[in-house]
Specification:
Structural class: alpha/beta
Number of strands: 9
Oligomer: single chain
Order of helices and strands: HHEEHHHHEEEHEHHEHHEEHHHHHHHHH
Radius of gyration: 30 Å
Strand content: 5-15%
Length: 529
């Protein structure tokens, strides 16, 4: 980026923006240089980037159950009691010795799987009506095209839950005796899935309207040969994935709308704009106009054009802040995130509404800190021990919160994160974490929220696996179906529903188990104590 012609004519805000942009470029260049250095070291046979193992704080601070012993193994229970016998066969002794006496039977249960091709020729009646119109008998429920619902269920389960690639899936299905092309398999994966897409969207709406907390995370994604990002949103009852080309706060707010496309100016939107330091005269222009709700992006930006807001050249960007505020107003207008805490890893785009920070990520900053002397290592070890003890006490507080415990933990937090160790880099990091005190200690007022984002990180691994196996998606339908079925599979797992049974019910497989709509289950779980 070339510098301006006359730096003296820039305002303080413009100079600050210029410095911030150049700093971002420097950080990006440093990242690229580090990546190139690691790659060169790897090509030369060197160690490359050091493999820093997780700190283990979460697992180490888990309380051990009373009376537990590491030497005793837990019995898994009877398998026979959970099985349904489909067939009984009597196996006879070929030639018992003379003089033997019959002593009844002994049971030996075998679990097996019956997989075979089943081709059906539907002979559909045809009648000619009085007006010469031909009447043809309809196909049974679940029949859509020349491949039946059981095959569609098998293909979807293998691809999305078993993480099979399309070429391997094609070979597997063909080896079973099905005559099918790769293009037809892709059609089974991507076409005619509107019902699933709608249910995944409704899962997100149900989750956001009822959740006391959610955790969020994102990872890289490829779509149409372009780098993008996949964002995960979820909690103990649901998970949802959305792939976009951006990871900005604007993009995150659009995802939180859960499929709604309106922009709303209400009290929540105005409060957001003021919090983000939008100029007062811009807010006054929005308030002076009688329209408060706008259907779609084009209508909203046309409104900003009419008010002259789009032509303003001030900092912060009035169009961006006003748009973010209108998105936040839409989220609140639809009853989403009513009193929900968003727990994240301190990525800036997730800092909206009531926000909490992940303690595991905070401690990881101390854990990954480079040390060069024995004094540095001793200071790092001391601080980590204090953080681990504090984290264990936070867990105990969540189980039995008291005002006295809250005050004591707040004082201990200040004592840990304002201490001076003599290790300058560590002291700066502690000061930075102390500045996030309110977000790290949200749990003191909301003990029901988690202390980490491990749930989101575990959920998003399935997307990372899919990306490593198959790369990216080539069509919008493929991207939407990948996100949809990953969302539904993860939600079924959290609701203790077999994804195979869920697919069988939705695809109208004969004899499949009845599965209620997932949004209804999520709402019921949220309302239960």
């Amino acid at each position: 980026m070339s510098p301006p012609d006359d730096l003296d004519r820039l305002s303080p805000a413009e100079l600050k923006g210029l410095v911030v942009r150049q700093w971002e470029q420097v950080v990006e260049l440093q990242r690229l240089v580090a990546a190139l250095r690691d790659e060169i070291a790897r090509l030369k046979g060197g160690p490359g980037r050091p493999n820093i193992k997780p700190s283990g704080m979460e697992k180490a601070t888990e309380p051990k159950p009373a009376g537990s012993s590491g030497d005793k193994k837990r019995r898994r229970g009877s398998t026979r009691s959970r099985l349904t016998i489909d067939e009984e066969r009597t196996v006879k002794v070929a030639a018992p010795p003379r003089g033997s006496r019959f002593k009844g039977y002994t049971s030996f249960v075998v679990q097996d799987l019956a997989i075979h091709v089943h081709v059906v020729n539907f002979r559909r009646e045809r009648w000619q009506g009085p007006d010469d119109e031909m009447i043809t008998a309809p196909l049974p429920a679940g029949i859509d095209g020349h491949f039946g619902p059981q095959l569609r269920r098998f293909v979807l389960a293998q691809y999305h839950e078993a993480q099979t690639t399309v070429p391997r899936l094609v070979r597997l299905v063909r080896s079973l005796g099905i005559f099918i092309s790769k293009r037809q398999v892709v059609r089974l994966l991507n076409e005619g899935q509107d019902g699933f897409v709608t249910e995944a969207r409704d899962v997100l709406r149900a989750g956001l309207s009822s959740a006391p907390w959610i955790t969020v995370d994102d990872t890289g994604a490829r779509h149409k040969a372009t780098n993008g990002f996949c964002t995960q949103i979820g909690n103990a009852h649901f998970a949802w994935f959305g792939t976009t080309g951006s990871k900005s706060r604007l993009n995150f707010l659009e995802l939180l709308r859960a499929g709604y496309d309106d922009y709303v100016i209400n009290a929540e939107a105005l409060a957001y704009m003021r919090e983000r330091a939008l100029a007062v005269h811009v807010i006054d222009r929005l308030l002076a106009h009688p329209d408060r709700c706008f259907a779609g992006r084009n209508a909203w930006h046309a409104h900003l054009e009419r008010l002259g807001i789009s032509a303003l050249k001030v900092h912060p960007d009035p169009v961006l802040i006003a748009t973010e505020g209108a998105l936040w107003g839409s989220i609140k207008a639809h009853g989403l995130l009513p009193d929900t805490v968003i727990v994240s890893d301190d990525a800036g785009q997730f800092k909206v509404g009531s926000h909490g920070l992940c303690w595991v990520h905070a401690e990881r900053l101390v854990h990954k800190l480079d040390t060069f002397t024995d004094e540095h290592r001793a200071a790092q070890a001391t601080v980590r021990e204090l953080i681990w003890e504090f984290y264990a006490d936070l867990k105990a507080y969540r189980c039995a919160p008291t005002p006295q415990g809250k005050a004591a933990l707040q004082a201990r937090f200040d004592g840990i994160f304002t201490r001076k160790t003599g290790f300058v880099t560590l002291d700066r990091l502690l000061a930075r974490l102390h500045a996030n005190k309110s977000e790290l200690l949200v749990v003191l007022d909301r003990p029901e929220i988690p202390l980490h984002t491990n749930g989101s990180e575990n959920d998003i691994r399935c997307h990372v696996t899919r990306r490593k196996l198959s790369g990216g998606t080539r069509s919008d339908a493929g991207r939407d179906c990948r996100d949809t079925f990953l969302s539904l599979a993860k939600t079924c797992a959290k609701l203790k529903i077999a994804f195979w049974d869920y697919l069988g019910n939705r695809l109208a497989v004969p004899g499949a188990q009845a599965i209620p709509q997932l949004p209804e289950i999520i709402l019921a779980r949220a309302q239960s104590p």
